[in-house]
Each structure stands twice: as structure tokens, then as C-alpha cells.
Amino acid sequence: MTTNHELFERARLKLPGGVNSPVRAFKSVGGEPFFTARADGPYLWDVEGKRYIDYVGSWGPMIVGHNHPHVRAAVARAIDDGLSFGTPCPAEVTMAETVTRLVPSLEMVRMVNSGTEATMAAIRLARGFTGRNKIVKFEGCYHGHGDAFLVKAGSGALTFGVPTSPGVPAGLADLTLTLPYNDLAAAERLFEEAGSDIAGLIIEPVAGNMNCILPREGYLKALRDLCTRHGALLIFDEVMTGFRVALGGAQQHYGITPDLSTFGKIIGGGMPVGAYGGRRDVMSQIAPSGPIYQAGTLSGNPVAMAAGLAMLELIQAPGFYADIARRTNTLSDGFATIAAECGVPMTTNAICGMFGLFFTSEKVETFAQATACDTALFNRFFHGMLERGVYLAPSAFEAGFLSSAHDDAVIAQTLDTARDALRAALK
Ligand code: PLP
């Protein structure tokens, strides 16, 4: 049998850090990652045969659990007809019709291959449409690895302490203005000073890359108004929240209409897919109907579209989101209760299908609060959970994800494990 350790040794010789995406390497929590052999429902099994209850869900896509038979069957049917055509295919049209129906702010949509591609294209479009160069993002928000976004970024960039990456030209970074999340006065000041230069403001409407932070009451609406007043486009990055916090995403949950939105993860059903879309007058500026260029050899790939469409069918089941929301609350309240029993300060944030645990006594609403939590305790807790067969995201700065396969029994087992793991972490 190949062990996790042997595979990591081999991987490290040929892949930078042994991985193809940084947070997978366990650098922030310490130790070595496991290598997954297969996945089903709420579980992963590593190459040594150990089973884990999985709260990462492939970093978001797996909202119906791993390896769902409906998605698998759709992929198998699509594969029979070929892997890629390079011409338009019917599934792309169905996909466009489906997502524009589920997310009403999308009057038109363009399919791409990842969340990063979607956000990069969206800001190019915002710049081309407005004729302005500056964009606004929020400290601790992550929008993929495009140059313009690796300025005070979240996720792996934050985990590894290089929130602004070397290799991003200063001239380009200067065009990215950053704001503290949930601080409306700061946004108002910035727009007062620079509003006429701002092409667009991009935000995770629920932040999931500095742990999980919810927008304050009225915050998103106030940002909507600011953008409208100053002629900047409001871009909701719903790569994580889209089809997760509600069928119509965070924009439906909070009742806000952005000008543009970006998607990834769930929309591809586990295949590499992203999308961006929004106002018809803005989207019409994209080539070939307009002059702003964006393209992709594999965009709208028939197999990926089949997986995504099958996923979008499943999530429209009646009660799908109500069930996940209820279980998300059971889990996050359960964590808080256990911490209280153990005398450990912990607060939690939760919204349908997403949760965050913070080792602090404060309600966490800002980046500064998230980064001030006890990460050493989180790391011990993470490893205690992992040893006992529960896989949380391997960083204190990532949100946790639930799926419809995380039933009440799985959640109860998780909480029993958490009690043991937390006690052990305190010794
Ligand atoms: N935007 C958000 C909010 C994300 O969470 C991510 C990835 O985690 C991205 C964009 C980038 O997506 P991808 O990793 O598919 O390029």
C-alpha cells in the first residue's frame, strides 16, 4: 500500500510544495496532507483507507455530497458523445438559460473554466465598460489569483502571510484600492476621494476566505448605493456563495442586485467551470458582440456543462436549502456549546451551507478580528479532529462547507468528535 507520506515525498520533488494549490499543503496547520483515493456523500477516504467526514467539499462545489449518482450519470452520458467540440453545443445554451433563470440579475452570462477566470474577466469588463482603471476590493477577500486581486488577499495568500504577492507589478497593484470589510464609513470616504476613477467594486457578499464573515445589516445595500451614485459597477463574487447560501446566491438572500456577478465551484458540479454575467448592456460589450476580449478553448465544455446542469437540477429540489440551513445551524451552535462546556472562548458565524469557528469571545465581523483569533488552538483542534476522522479546512482562515449529505447522524458524530478533540487540544 502506498502511504500518504510516501506520496507527499514524491509530490514534493516534482510539484512546488507538493501540491497544485497552496492551502492543500497543510502549511498553516502543520503536518502533511492526506491523499484522497475516493469520495462519496459526506466522506473522503485516503490512500491508507482511513475515512473522514469532509467539511471542505472540494472547497465548495460538493453541495450535494461527493460522487452524487445523478451528476455521475450525466457526466457518463455526456462522455459517450465526446469530450470537447470547439463549436457551440446545446448544453451551453441550457446552462445559460438555467443560470439566468435562477439568478435574475444575470441577463446574460459567459461560461469560463474557473472562478479566477470569471473574476479577471469581470474586472476587465468593468474597466472597459466604464473607461476607468481603478478597482476596489476588500482586505481578506479572495477573488482567485489574478494579478489585480493579489493585493491584501485572503485564503492561501493570507494563510501564508503574503497577502500581496511578489510578481504583481506595483503599477498594477496601485490600481487596486483596498477597504476594510464591513466598514461603511471607510467606503464612503474612498468613493468621495476617488469615486470618479473607480470602474468597479468587487466583494464576497459573505466573506469565506478570511474564515466566514457575514455582512453587517444594510452594508451591501449601502455599497450598492455608493456604486450607483459614483457610476462604478458593483460586482458580487459569488464563486463561493453562489447556489450555496440560497438558490439565487447571496444576492437573493440579501435582496441586492449587483451589476455583474461571478460564479464557480457549484456551477460546475465538480468539473472546472466558472461563469460571469449580469446586466445585458454591460455583457453585450464582451467579444464577439462587443470589443472587450475574453475567450476560452474549453469554455462551455460539454462534459463540464452536463455535470453543472445535473447539479443545478438537484439543488432545485423543494426544501433543499432549508434543510442545509437547519443543519448548518445545528453544527455551528453545537460547536459553540461544546466550547462553552470546555470553558474555551469560541464564537461562530453561519449561513446556509457555510460556517466559521473563531477561538475568541467576540462576535467576528472584521478582518482584524478574524486574524486576532487563537490560531494555535485552532491548529491543535484541527489535528485532533483529523486524527479522529473529521476533516475541517486546513487553515483558520477558510470557511467550512456542509452538503445535503451531511445528515443529522453525521453532524451528531462530528460534534461528539469535536468534544473529544477540543478537550485534547486544551491539555
Ligand atoms: N472567488 C472566490 C470568492 C473564491 O472563493 C475563489 C476560490 O476559492 C475564487 C474566486 C477563485 O476560484 P478558482 O479557485 O476556481 O479559480
Automatic annotation (TrEMBL):
Under the heading Pfam families, the entry gives: Aminotran_3 (PF00202)
Q: What InterPro entries has UniProt attached to this entry?
A: 4pyrrol_synth_GluAld_NH2Trfase, Aminotrans_3, Aminotrans_3_PPA_site, PyrdxlP-dep_Trfase, PyrdxlP-dep_Trfase_major, PyrdxlP-dep_Trfase_small
Could you tell me which pathway this protein works in? Porphyrin-containing compound metabolism; protoporphyrin-IX biosynthesis; 5-aminolevulinate from L-glutamyl-tRNA(Glu): step 2/2
**E.C. number:** 5.4.3.8
Its annotated compartments are: Cytoplasm
NCBIfam families linked to this entry = hemL, PRK00062.1
UniProt-recorded name of the protein? Glutamate-1-semialdehyde 2,1-aminomutase
